[in-house]
Amino acid sequence: xxxxxxxxxxxxxxxxxxxxxxxxxxxxxxxxxxxxxxxxxxxxxxxxxxxxxxxxxxxxxxxxxxxxxxxxxxxxxxxxxxxxxxxxxxxxxxxxxxxxxxxxxxxxxxxxxxxxxxxxxxxxxxxxxxxxxxxxxxxxxxxxxxxxxxxxxxxxxxxxxxxxxxxxxxxxxxxxxxxxxxxxxxxxxxxxxxxxxxxxxxxxxxxxxxxxxxxxxxxxxxxxxxxxxxxxxxxxxxxxxxxxxxxxxxxxxxxxxxxxxxxxxxxxxxxxxxxxxxxxxxxxxxxxxxxxxxxxxxxxxxxxxxxxxxxxxxxxxxxxxxxxxxxxxxxxxxxxxxxxxxxxxxxxxxxxxxxxxxxxxxxxxxxxxxxxxxxxxxxxxxxxxxxxxxxxxxxxxxxxxxxxxxxxxxxxxxxxxxxxxxxxxxxxxxxxx
Length: 433
Fold this sequence. Notes:
Layout lengths: L7 H9 L4 E6 L3 H14 L4 E6 L7 E8 L2 E9 L5 H19 L5 E4 L6 H10 L1 E2 L2 E2 L5 E10 L3 H6 L4 H4 L11 H11 L2 E5 L6 H14 L4 E5 L6 H8 L26 E5 L2 E8 L5 H11 L3 E10 L2 E11 L2 E9 L14 H9 L10 E8 L3 H9 L5 H5 L2 H4 L27 E3 L1
Parallel strand pairs: 1-5, 1-8, 2-5, 8-9, 9-10
Antiparallel strand pairs: 2-3, 3-4, 6-7, 11-12, 12-16, 13-14, 13-16, 14-15, 15-17
């Protein structure tokens, strides 16, 4: 796959970087993910592959294996004080990567994540947790996050209504995540997506899955691998040394606020896949939106974004739908609702995106939602959402009247009080299903 060319100075800096390169390999179907890992090892036997098995996590035990092309180098069981994924990342994954980078400074690393570990959580730990007093990124260069999806099971995973606990693969006792939520988070954080194998339904359906991935994560490069015959060298060139990862990229629900691509508007079906971007300036009527939720997501595989409710004009509401379940939460305050001194605490991208799209009446408040599904009717979806916006007469009543509207979401999106100790009043401050 092609990537954007680097500026000459940037290219020279990366070439001169002596840190070992780290590729983070994730996916919900371990057999496909491990097949990609084996191909990378075949192409570069000096590569160090780090894996953690969380099957014993509930009992506080984690199984760690490190291997290269010649075989297993480490095979250990580690006892943790607290059995959870984040503890595993902090207490063993990061220290292991740091230790290997120091011991083998000329050998690159691949970290293969357990299926229930989300790549964005790994990136957060890498960014904020120190190992022996220094950040991991002082020791390794994170090259890219690669997610492998199994063509045979992808669609079933995306539309599944099961949760991890019901399947017996939860990461902790309080892990109530849905399977589909985990699958989309693997996909959406990826710099590169590998579509592995073929759909059971044949070539057309495999192409449909490729389009579906491109609509769900249009920012990711995509590689298709037949699965029966793999060119390890070619696959390595597509997955390693790409320099695709950008740590400053915001989380997927905040992408639109930061002026990043949240989705693509492709209302004409491609292999049956439709992607619809809905944008509007005026607010939603809370009752009408609530009553339309089931209809809006009836044929949707994935929808996400942010919105504003007339009755809660300070709050950016996050919209997060996958696997038949819709999560709504607070993404903090609109800049229009923030006193001037707090603007400096928003990111430069957030302030720039708001300035470019500022409205004298609404400020930076707006609707920005993306819907991806199979055989969606984009016109009907747009009519339904537009019908949930305030009418001209309701708009003319003004903000004081909006706050008194019938609101089924009242109390669902609490905002922290603004005060001298606040560090990020525009960040995620709460979540409610």
